[in-house]
Every structure is written in structure tokens, then in C-alpha cells.
Amino acid sequence: MVDKYSQAKIKHHYVWASYLRNWSLNERDVYYTTAKGNIACDSVKGLAMEKDFYKSKRLTKEHLEHVNTFASLFPEGRQDAHIDILNGCLYVQKIEDIGKSLGNKEIQEIINTNLSNYLEFLHSCHEDSALEIIKSLAKGDLTILSDDKRLSDFSLFLGHQVFRTKKMKAVANTIISNIDTTKSRNVSRSINECWWFLSYMFGINLGLDLFGTRHDDGHCLLINNTSVPFITSDHPVIDIPLTMREENRLSGARNVDFYYPISPKIAYMIKAGDRLGSSKVEVTDNEADEMNSNIAKRANVHIFGDSEAAIKPYRKQLDFG
User: Fold this and answer.
1) 232: closest CA among 305, 140, 135?
2) Full-model pTM
3) What's the CA gap between 4 and 87, in Å, rounded?
4) Taking the CA of residue 112 as centre, how many other CA atoms within 13 Å lie in the half-sphere pointing to its CB?
5) pLDDT above 50 for 246
6) Section 128-135 average pLDDT
7) pLDDT category, 277, cuts 50, 70, 90?
8) Of the candidates 170, 172, 191, 195, which has an alpha carbon nearest to the alpha carbon of residue 54?
9) What does the pLDDT read at residue 247?
């Protein structure tokens, strides 16, 4: 019998399946929009998933130039952490080269498994760290984040959930490819090839930013007892510009709020520059509808809900072009 941990995991979820179950009525199936804009109901195991989406690929000299360019933009104290992760990847590449030179099929299979599982394993670790936190938040308990270790874990989880999605990868490519030059097209291709590493690096940086501003920001739960349940999507953590609210506008490096629906009844929000601290806020029907609209507009293909009626009003806000 083959140990499941020695098998290559090729089905990579860019949104946590366990998280999506918060919208399921049977702990398995959720309602969602298909790529053609229809509404279906299926198991979360096959949703927000792509084969080999996180598979590690060889980092070339050109890729490393992009990595170092982006890493140089981060605070100096964080660059060492990124270098450590990068060195780990380069070490795996050296092992891969040795394995190829030996021509050993068994060694090659082990290496291929590690390439498929490496980043998926890292994301699974962040998910495991966030599991009890999300369960508590879903019950309306915000006190679990009063512990800095848990808040740090959750901040990193959120940072990665922003950058690990298929939508964010597409956005990054679009921004670069819009510069209509041969050089930009080559850069776009190269960044796409090493996005598996860049996305993880960006996720760490955002997570550290969120944790670093914890004393300046407000962390609140949005309680939804309205007739408009919260929905979520295949890009579930979204940033909302401060222009959408008038209060608490402070200058700083971050000028957005972050919104993360937890369940049809609960959502989590980080309000930039809101020093009033943690709180619970009951939303109105209009506010719930506004949040759902923001989620739908930022989705890639799928929005998820606990019923067909919950997501039907927002299908028209998806871009299936």
C-alpha cells in the first residue's frame, strides 16, 4: 500500500475546500456559478481547483532576477526570510539535477512528488493554523484574535489567500501585458512561469503587513441577520478602497480595508487606521448586498452561496468575457 503522503498531489485548491463548506447545507455541496454563468451545486472538492496550479517549476536566472527585484521592494528585515525560502527551492533544484544525472526512476518519482507537493504543503500548514480561528469567528467569537500568535497565523493565512488565487495570477499578468512592448511580453511570460514562488512571497509580505499594523487597524466581525446572506468567491479576500467609507481615513502605506466572508452570517473585516479596536457590527440588507456585489465583481469565475437564490442576483456582476 502506497503512503498517501508519498503521492504527488496534483489537485491544487486555490481556495480552501474546508472554508467553502461553511456555505454547505450538507457539509459537502455548495451552490456556485459555472464558467458559463449557470448555477450548479456540487462537492467543494472539485471547486476552485486546478491541476498542478502550485507545482514548483525550475527557477532560471531570469526568474531569479524578477524575484530579487520584487524582494528588494520589501522592508529590509523581511528580505532574509524570502532568501531562506528561495534557497530552499534552489536546493531542491540541485537535488533534482543530481537525480537526473543518476538516471534512477524511483528517485525521479520522489523528486516529482516533492515538486507537486512543496507549495501545496506550505499552504496546508497555513490552513491548519487558521482552522480553529475560522471556526471561532464563524461562531461570532472575535476574542480568539486577542492572542498575537493566532492573529499572526491568521494574518499570514489571509495574505496568502489574497495572492494564491487564479484571479490574482491573471491580474498580475494583465497588468504587465498591458504594456505593449516585446520586453513586457517576455517579462509577463517569465513572471507567469515563476508565479508559484512570487505569489507565496507576496502572500508572506502582505500577511506581515496586516499583522504589523494590528495596533492601528480595527478588526471587526460583520454580523448578518438580514434576508441577504453573505456569499463568497474563488477570490474570497478582497480589498475595499477607503473612499467607500468616510471615517478613519489616515495616511499610511496601506489605504484599503480587507473583507473576508466567513459564512452566510459572518464576515471578517480589517479597517485600516481604525484605532477603535475590535468590535462586532450588525449589517443592514443594503450593506450585505454591497459586500456581496464587491465579492462578485472581484471573482474570477465562481461565486458561492448556501442557496441558488443567494447567488442569483450577483451573476450579472461576473465577467465571463
Assistant:
1) 305
2) 0.89
3) 27
4) 11
5) no
6) 97
7) low
8) 195
9) 38
Give the confidence band of 285 by pLDDT, cuts at 50, 70, 90: very high
Write out the three cell numbers for 321: 468575457
Q: Which residues of 178-196 are buried (b: 16+ CB within 10 A; e: fewer)?
A: eeeeeeeeebbebbbbbbb
Report which residue type is found at 245. R
Grid coordinates representing 179? 504594456
In this prediction, residues 23-31 reach a mean pLDDT of 96
Tell me how many degrees the CA angle 11-16-21 measures, rounded to the nearest 5. 115
Which of 21, 62, 51, 27 has the alpha carbon at shortest distance from 197?
62
Distance CA 164, CA 32 (A): 20
Residue 58 identity: R
Strands 266-271 and 218-223 turn out to be: antiparallel
| 9 CA to centre of own chain | 19
Q: Which of 221, 205, 200 is nearest to 271 (CA)?
A: 221
* Own/partner pairs, 254-257, CB within 8 angstroms, 24+ separation: 254/209, 254/213
* CA pair distance 45, 303, nearest whole angstrom: 15
Going by C-alpha positions, the residue among 144, 130, 156 that lies closest to residue 221 is 144
**What is the chain's length?**
321
Indicate left, alpha or beta for 2 from its phi (over 0: left) and psi (-120 to 50: alpha): beta
- Give the bridge partners for 218, in sequence order: 271
Q: Taking each helix axis as running N to C, give the angle between helix 195-212 and helix 166-177, from 0 to 180 degrees, rounded to the nearest 10.
A: 110
- Burial (CB < 10 A; 0-12, 13-18, 19+), residue 149, is exposed
Whole-number Å distance between alpha carbons of 200 and 220: 26
